[in-house]
Design brief:
Number of strands: 8
Radius of gyration: 20 Å
Structural class: alpha/beta
Helix content: 25-40%
Strand content: 15-25%
CATH topology: Rossmann fold
Shape: globular
CATH class: Alpha Beta
Largest sheet: 8 strands, mixed
Number of helices: 9
Distance between the termini: 52 Å
Order of helices and strands: HEEHEHHEHEHEHEHEH
CATH architecture: 3-Layer(aba) Sandwich
Number of domains: 1
C-alpha cells in the first residue's frame, strides 16, 4: 500500500503575497508582517484555513500583504467582522490586525465587548501612538504632552488610554506586549497567542518614525518585563497599572471558557433551492 503524501510545511515567505508594502521607510509594521508570517509558519497552518481581518489605517493594510484569506473592513469594525466569521466558521484561525486609533477610538466599544465575549480570536494592535495614515493626529494612546501635531500644538491634555489594563478588566484571556524591533520575539508571542483559546490581546509597539521620530529610542528603552506570566488577574492588574508601557512579554494567561454558540441553519437547502426564504 502506498503511503499518502504529506503536505510539505510552508515557509514564512509562503504566507506573503506579491504586493509590496507601501509603509514609510523605518515603519515598524514591516517587522510585524514578518513576525506574523513566521508565526503562521511555526503553527503549520494551511493558508486556506487562516483569515486576517483588519479595519482602516496603516496597520490595516496587512491582509493585502499576506497570501491567506483577508478582509479589509470599515474603520473600527474589524473585531465584529472577525467575531462573526469565527462564530460561523470555528474551524478557521482568525487573526485581527489593527492600530491604536482604529482599535481604541472608533473601535473602542467593539474592543471592550470582544474581550468580554472571549471568542477564540487573536488581536494584534500595532501601537505607534499616532494616526499615521491621516497625517499625524493624536490617537488614544498619545502622551498628554505630545505637541508635534498642528491639531494639538500644546499637547492633548488628556491621559492616554491603557489598552492592556482595559483588556484585562474587560475579560481578555491572554494579554501580551511586544516590540516590532524584536521580530523573532514577537513571532513567538503571536504563536502562543493563537494557540491559547479565547480572546488573545497582543499590543505591539510599532514605531512611526515619520510622525513620532522619538520612538526610535524604543531600541534602547523597551525591555523584557520583570515579572513572570501570571494567571492571577489581580496581580496582573497591579503590575499593569504601575508599568510605564515599555515592558514586553506575555503578561497574563486566563482560563475563561471561550464563547462558542451552537448554530442552527435559519433555512433549509430545499428552501434556498426553491427561492422560499422568509
Amino acid at each position: 500500500m502506498t503511503a499518502l503524501a504529506q503536505t510539505p510545511a510552508l515557509t514564512a515567505a509562503a504566507y506573503k503575497s506579491d504586493y509590496r508594502p507601501v509603509w514609510c521607510p523605518g515603519c515598524g509594521h514591516y517587522s510585524v508582517l514578518s513576525s506574523l508570517t513566521k508565526a503562521l509558519a511555526e503553527l503549520g497552518l494551511q493558508r486556506e484555513n487562516v483569515a486576517v481581518i483588519s479595519g482602516i489605517g496603516c496597520s490595516s493594510r496587512i491582509p493585502a500583504y499576506t497570501s491567506v484569506y483577508g478582509f479589509h473592513s470599515v474603520h473600527g469594525r474589524a473585531l465584529p467582522v472577525a467575531t462573526g466569521l469565527k462564530v460561523a466558521r470555528p474551524d478557521l484561525t482568525v487573526v485581527v490586525a489593527g492600530g491604536d486609533g482604529d482599535g481604541y477610538s472608533i473601535g473602542g466599544n467593539h474592543f471592550l465587548h470582544a474581550c468580554r465575549r472571549n471568542v477564540d480570536l487573536t488581536y494584534l494592535v500595532m501601537d505607534n501612538q499616532v494616526y499615521g495614515m491621516t497625517k499625524g493626529q493624536a490617537s488614544p494612546t498619545t502622551p498628554a504632552d505630545w505637541d508635534r501635531s498642528k491639531l494639538t500644538p500644546h499637547g492633548t491634555g488628556v491621559s492616554p488610554f491603557h489598552p492592556l489594563a482595559v483588556a484585562l478588566a474587560a475579560g481578555a484571556n491572554f494579554i501580551a506586549r511586544c516590540y516590532a524591533g524584536d521580530p523573532n520575539g514577537t513571532a513567538r508571542v503571536i504563536t502562543e497567542a493563537v494557540r491559547h483559546p479565547g480572546f488573545s490581546m497582543v499590543q505591539i509597539l510599532s514605531q512611526c518614525v515619520t510622525y513620532q521620530p522619538s520612538q526610535k529610542e524604543w531600541k534602547t528603552t523597551v525591555r523584557k518585563a520583570d515579572v513572570t506570566t501570571t494567571r492571577d488577574a489581580v496581580r496582573a492588574a497591579r503590575w499593569l497599572m504601575a508599568d510605564d508601557g515599555l515592558s514586553t512579554g506575555v503578561l497574563y494567561i486566563g482560563h475563561r471558557p471561550i464563547y462558542r454558540p451552537e448554530l442552527q441553519a435559519s433555512c433549509s437547502v430545499d428552501d434556498l433551492e426553491s427561492g422560499f426564504v422568509v
